[in-house]
């Protein structure tokens, strides 16, 4: 059979035509309507890739895809959605008409965009991104500041932040390079290393071992880091102040990065040079990030967050434009929108447009405390210095002795205890009396260690008081609490801050309370419940939902709020616990202070009721605001202290004043004062022991004193026999005290042969007595006298010409004369001539006089011992722990002040002379031959003109005027 015949025998089937199928209620295709299961996995993988890509993008890149213009949400896009209508009138004008659905959908898109921007800001303010920002690039170099200024109390937080940065961002990079910046630089590796587990471990260990290295020589670090060619991102983390100016650093960076695709990321971590770092980032086009632990709003100066805030402001401006369109015309086009849409949008609260913290509208995360807190005053009753028996006077009381005077039968007279004054240390007691203290150094050393431990405990409590909700409210100590919240119109821009403060309080401190209520006051009084309710989890969540609906309007009707709180929530029953009212406000009440204070005093009389005031202020630091705030603080403090309540002032920079913290600081200062007095007692004891050792150095017990043989001296010829007159003159010359008997008899003459040939033994002389006698002889003034023979035989007489001047206790104020012309010498040499010690103007020397011993004597008529009244009549001063009577008259003190003013003016004149001319740059040139070495490196370029001017001044003012030879290099 032929093939063609077989083909003809096969029947041909016709393909049926496609028919259109109409499906009603078809859902919108979101990209997940697929025909195969593998396609679903591919779509999900692409979605995850896009999310990861958005997390690795900077705010500039993210806004390029999600900004207002990218989402077509500008005012021009809104006008394009309207329909232009012309009215058939003579003066026809354009009219743009919108449907309610169009306006409503457009506003929803704007609100959704604002919400996305807030979420992005919240994401950037989490974990390591909050401290260092978002680090881009795959090959990253880190320059870490390790100067001495970075060794404060926040150093451990800085190191923990660096470790968090390595674990959260650096670990996903390809290569890393680490360098610490100090006076010199230190690198972990010589070149960038691939990111592995071992390299990350080395990086973490290197960060933990960072030590301070002097200054912050950022220019030297940039010279070395910019030579590495394999980096695409360079992160500069500065927590102090660079040694170089921003202009020098910017010029060097721009020169070295010309033609390179290197992105700089500058981080200011608690830096005092934030403005300079931001200027450097703006000059070089770098990304800037700012983190401050004491001022949290500084983070909004960061580049990524600032761009998002600008987009939020754009979106808010568009919403304001829509409101203007509802009110009237925009350019030449009249806007007409449905009245119902206008009414709904007008009712929207202003809090919608304010930035909110993350999860602001979410439910509370309540933590129930496991203890009842106390005020610092109550806490110190059990943990204060007096409660712990650590008062200095309690410790010294067993070894403190007063002056005792009693009758001794053996001596048949009264004897006072002068031994204490000689062997002990005089110390002023808390009642003003002076007691003699037996100093026990080991006991005082242990006491100082106990003071250090209790001071650390006080520091821990202060740190606890400055965290969480206690930073804003203080401690909530009562079991029944009423919160009075200020919702006046002045707090409209701070309503989010008020709500967040209440949220922290409800989460952290209200879980273990018995009853509570919340009252807001403006012009009108609003309350959560008519009376106090139980502090259950459901009631706390219900109170938070009520707080979210608070609106600010009117003034501050504080008196009505207090009346509402007391009259509807307080029952005066004996078995009920105390009631605490916490007033949370930002300014003065509308009523006068006497009216509010009088009502509080009357309501709290006989009741356990306290009103505590929590003041929050977010204002500028202008002089007018500061004076107004001082008046506000004074009024609110008086209001809180009417019912023995506490005052707490919280500002945007932290706690400004708190009664709880003030009590602790006062106790710490008392502990420091006690420690200083202990150190003074030990130092006085050491000084007294040192003086005794200098005066008398006995041989050690058990030591052998070597016997020194007497050296033989050849006999010398005897002197001729002196006469009685010669002996009298020699005796009066050697005896400076003039106490020897002047009736000396002439010695009987003996021949030389009567002397023995054996040399006599040397007379024993006490070295201590001899040294003391020599000191007295040096201090004793010489007398002028003549010696002559009397008529009675060989008796001699003495006639004094000049008598020694009597030494008085009083000291005169010296009159000083200082030169007007300046001397070319060092300040040390100049002060040797004209210092206070040389001019005899030291106050301790002038006031030094006899000690005040406070002796007591028996008065027969009173039959008791009475101390001397002159101690209270004459003025007394304390000099180095010893009470002395002041010996100067008011006129002498005025003369002393006048002389001191004269000396102070001369010192200021000398200081101005040293800071003028070439001496400001080079000081005073003292030598006759000088070699000047000048640094001519590139770092001196900004100061070249000033250096040249200073050298010219030095040449003509000092070198040429004094004929000094010099060599310049």
From TrEMBL:
Source taxon at top rank: Eukaryota
Query: Which InterPro entries does UniProt cross-reference here?
Result: VWF_A, vWFA_dom_sf
Signal peptide, first to last residue: none
SUPFAM superfamilies noted in UniProt: vWA-like (SSF53300)
What are the residue boundaries of the VWFA domain, all occurrences included? Answer: 139-289, 480-648
What is this protein's record name? Answer: VWFA domain-containing protein
Q: Identify the taxonomic lineage of the organism of origin.
A: Eukaryota, Metazoa, Chordata, Craniata, Vertebrata
């Amino acid at each position: 059979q032929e093939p063609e015949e077989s083909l003809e025998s096969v029947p041909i089937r016709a393909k049926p035509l496609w028919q259109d199928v109409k499906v009603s209620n078809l859902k919108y295709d979101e990209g997940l309507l697929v025909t195969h299961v593998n396609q679903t996995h591919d779509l999900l993988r692409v979605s995850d890739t896009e999310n990861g890509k958005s997390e690795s993008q900077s705010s500039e890149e993210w806004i390029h895809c999600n900004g207002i213009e990218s989402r077509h949400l500008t005012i021009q896009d809104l006008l394009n959605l309207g329909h232009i209508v012309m009215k058939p009138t003579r003066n026809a004008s354009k009219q743009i008409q919108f449907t309610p659905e169009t306006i409503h959908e457009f506003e929803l898109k704007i609100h959704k965009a604002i919400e996305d921007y807030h979420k992005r800001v919240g994401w950037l303010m989490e974990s390591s991104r909050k401290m260092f920002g978002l680090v881009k690039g795959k090959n990253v170099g880190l320059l870490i500041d390790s100067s001495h200024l970075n060794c404060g109390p926040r150093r451990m937080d800085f190191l923990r932040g660096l470790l968090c940065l390595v674990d959260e961002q650096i670990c996903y990079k390809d290569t890393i390079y680490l360098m610490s910046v100090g006076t010199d630089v230190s690198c972990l590796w010589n070149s960038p290393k691939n990111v592995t587990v071992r390299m990350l471990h080395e990086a973490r260990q290197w960060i933990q071992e960072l030590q301070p290295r002097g200054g912050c020589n950022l220019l030297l670090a940039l010279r070395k880091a910019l030579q590495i060619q394999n980096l695409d991102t360079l992160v500069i983390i500065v927590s102090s102040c660079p040694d170089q100016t921003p202009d020098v650093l910017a010029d060097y960076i721009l020169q070295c990065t010309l033609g390179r695709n290197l992105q700089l990321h500058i981080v200011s971590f608690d830096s005092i040079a934030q403005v300079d770092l931001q200027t450097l980032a703006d000059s070089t086009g770098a990304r800037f990030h700012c983190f401050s632990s004491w001022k949290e709003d500084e983070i909004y100066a960061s580049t990524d967050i600032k761009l998002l805030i600008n987009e939020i402001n754009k979106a808010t401006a568009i919403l304001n434009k829509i409101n203007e369109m509802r009110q009237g015309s925009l350019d030449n086009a009249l806007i007409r929108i449905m009245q119902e849409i206008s009414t709904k949008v007008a009712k929207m609260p202003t809090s919608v447009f304010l930035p909110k913290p993350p999860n602001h509208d979410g439910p509370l995360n309540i933590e129930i405390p496991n203890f009842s807190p106390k005020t610092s005053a109550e806490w110190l009753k059990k943990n204060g210095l007096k409660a712990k028996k650590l008062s200095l006077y309690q410790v010294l009381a067993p070894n403190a002795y007063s002056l005792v005077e009693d009758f001794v039968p053996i001596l048949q007279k009264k004897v006072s205890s002068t031994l204490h004054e000689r062997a002990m240390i005089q110390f002023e007691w808390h009642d003003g009396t002076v007691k003699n203290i037996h100093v026990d150094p080991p006991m005082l050393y242990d006491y100082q260690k106990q003071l250090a431990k209790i001071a650390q405990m006080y520091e821990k409590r202060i740190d606890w008081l400055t965290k969480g909700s206690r930073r804003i409210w203080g401690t909530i100590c009562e079991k029944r609490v009423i919160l009075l919240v200020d919702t006046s119109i002045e707090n409209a821009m701070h309503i989010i801050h008020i709500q967040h403060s209440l949220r922290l309080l409800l989460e952290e401190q209200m879980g273990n309370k018995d009853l509570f209520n919340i009252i807001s006051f403006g012009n009108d009084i609003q309350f959560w419940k008519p009376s106090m309710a139980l502090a259950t989890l459901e009631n706390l969540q219900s109170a938070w939902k009520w707080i979210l609906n608070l609106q600010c309007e009117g003034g501050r009707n504080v008196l009505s709020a207090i009346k509402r709180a007391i009259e509807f929530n307080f029952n005066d029953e004996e078995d009920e616990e105390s009631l605490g009212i916490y007033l949370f406000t930002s300014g003065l009440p509308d009523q006068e202070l006497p009216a509010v204070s009088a009502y509080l005093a009357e309501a709290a009389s006989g009741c356990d009721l306290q009103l505590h005031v929590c003041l929050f202020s977010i204002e500028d630091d202008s002089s007018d605001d500061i004076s107004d705030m001082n008046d506000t603080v004074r009024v609110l403090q008086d209001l809180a202290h009417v019912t023995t309540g506490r005052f707490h002032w919280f500002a945007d920079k932290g706690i400004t004043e708190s009664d709880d913290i003030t009590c602790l600081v006062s106790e710490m200062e008392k502990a420091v004062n006690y420690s200083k007095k202990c150190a003074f007692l030990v130092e006085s004891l050491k000084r007294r022991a040192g003086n005794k050792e200098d005066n008398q150095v006995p041989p050690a017990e058990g030591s052998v004193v070597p016997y020194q043989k007497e050296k033989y001296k050849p006999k010398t010829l005897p002197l001729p026999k002196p006469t009685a007159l010669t002996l009298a003159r020699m005796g009066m010359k050697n005896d400076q005290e003039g106490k020897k008997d002047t009736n000396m008899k002439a010695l009987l003459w003996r021949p030389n042969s009567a002397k023995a040939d054996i040399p006599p033994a040397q007379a024993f002389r006490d070295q201590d007595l001899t040294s003391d006698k020599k000191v007295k002889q040096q201090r004793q003034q010489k007398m002028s006298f003549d010696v002559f023979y009397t008529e009675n035989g060989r008796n001699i007489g003495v006639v004094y010409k000049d008598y020694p001047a009597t030494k008085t206790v009083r000291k005169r104020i010296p009159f000083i004369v200082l030169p007007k012309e300046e001397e070319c010498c060092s300040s040390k040499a100049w002060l040797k001539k004209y210092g206070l010690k040389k001019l005899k103007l030291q106050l301790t020397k002038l006031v030094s006089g006899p000690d005040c011993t406070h002796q007591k004597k028996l008065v027969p008529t009173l039959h008791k011992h009475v101390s001397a009244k002159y101690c209270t009549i004459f003025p007394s001063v304390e000099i180095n722990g010893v009470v002395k009577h002041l010996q100067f008259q008011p006129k002498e003190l005025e003369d002393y002040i006048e002389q001191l003013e004269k000396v102070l003016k001369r010192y200021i004149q000398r200081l101005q002379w040293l800071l003028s001319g070439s001496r400001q740059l080079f000081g005073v040139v003292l030598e006759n031959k000088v070699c000047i070495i000048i640094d001519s490196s590139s770092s001196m370029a900004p100061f070249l003109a000033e250096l040249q001017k200073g050298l010219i001044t030095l040449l003509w003012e000092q070198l040429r005027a004094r004929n000094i030879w010099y060599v310049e290099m």
